[in-house]
Amino acid sequence: MKYRNLGSSGVKVSSLCLGAMTFGEADEKSFMHKAGSDEATAHAVLDRAVAAGINFVDTADIYGQDGLSERVLGNWIASRSARDRIVLATKFRFTMGEGPNRSGASRYRIMRCVDDITVPEDETLRALDDLVRAGKVLYLGCSNYTAYRLMRSLWLSRTHHGAAFVTLQAQYSLLVRDLEREHVPLCRDEGLGILPWSPLAGGFLTGKFERGKPPPAGTRLGEKAERFARYDLERNWKILDAVRAVARETGKSPSAVSIAWLLARPQVTSVIFGARTVEQLETNLAGGELELAPGQLAALDQASALDLGYPYSFIQASQSSW
């Protein structure tokens, strides 16, 4: 397992981060819609992940139902005396519980989560800074921020001499490269590490799906026709063809290739992936050790090339003509 600094912080985390979204069996009203694993299986996945060198685990209070993922993870930590062996990331913002303060990013909500977009940014940052100063949180990260909002948050932290974000957790994969327009350059300039989520694009990049055929039963994309329709695009099939070609060359799975491509991208610190079983975990672990050749990276880049759009394409064309 390889380790990298968490953005500009001094702590080192494994290049693969185990996502705990699937920990615990919840009902259809939960965040994962019954796509979870029981506690014994979740603990087996955690045991194998730590044995493989993973020291970074990501969860949230909303995962599962009423904090189910956090409880399952907490039980494992207590039973293994593992609190000092992992870097634990958790999040807040989505709806939890009842009442008018059940969601959002207010000071009240943040403090309740540890011991939204309608909230002023400086209130959120002050509360987060208080948690860092109290020693309850070591480092701060944000998730699913627009580039302008992330830059404003960094500016507010800097001018108020408070703790600032060191990571950005965001959707990033061969299928979804939108971050490369503004977020990647911003993170490079400001020293933030990127933590991609959904690196396998909802399972599409596992290689289980075939062009012109219905999705296999039992897959998340196969649960609803409209969900699979969002992925059933010619561009995505061309990307999957390229991934399969590299998989054949390397003797690895499409999942491993897709994760390895992300780990080669600028500013990526650790790739977050979920695993409902130990077998799924093993498949994804291979991506952390796989180093793709320059030609293989170029082929994947070309197949998944992002249409930058205006003004980025205009700037690029202007620069190339000078």
How would you concisely characterize the structure shown here?
This protein has twelve helices and nine strands.
Mind sketching the topology for me?
Blueprint: E1 3-5, E2 12-14, E3 16-19, H1 39-51, E4 56-58, H2 68-80, E5 87-89, H3 107-114, H4 121-133, E6 140-143, H5 147-159, E7 165-171, H6 183-190, E8 193-197, H7 225-229, H8 234-250, H9 254-263, E9 271-274, H10 278-289, H11 294-303, H12 312-321
Parallel strand pairs: 3-4, 3-9, 4-5, 6-7, 7-8
Antiparallel strand pairs: 1-2
Supply the number of structural domains.
1
How far apart lie the N and C ends? 44 Å
So, the CATH homologous superfamily?
A: NADP-dependent oxidoreductase domain
> What would you call the shape?
globular
CATH topology: TIM Barrel
Give the biggest beta sheet.
Answer: 4 strands, parallel
* Fraction in helix: 40-55%
Main CATH class: Alpha Beta
CATH architecture level-2 label: Alpha-Beta Barrel
Number of strands: 9
| SSE succession | EEEHEHEHHEHEHEHHHEHHH
Strand content: 5-15%
Q: Spatial order of the strands in the main sheet?
A: 5-4-3-9
- Average predicted local confidence, pLDDT: 87
Structural class: alpha/beta
Unreliable spans: 103-107
Counted by DSSP, the helix tally is 12
The rounded Rg comes to 20 Å
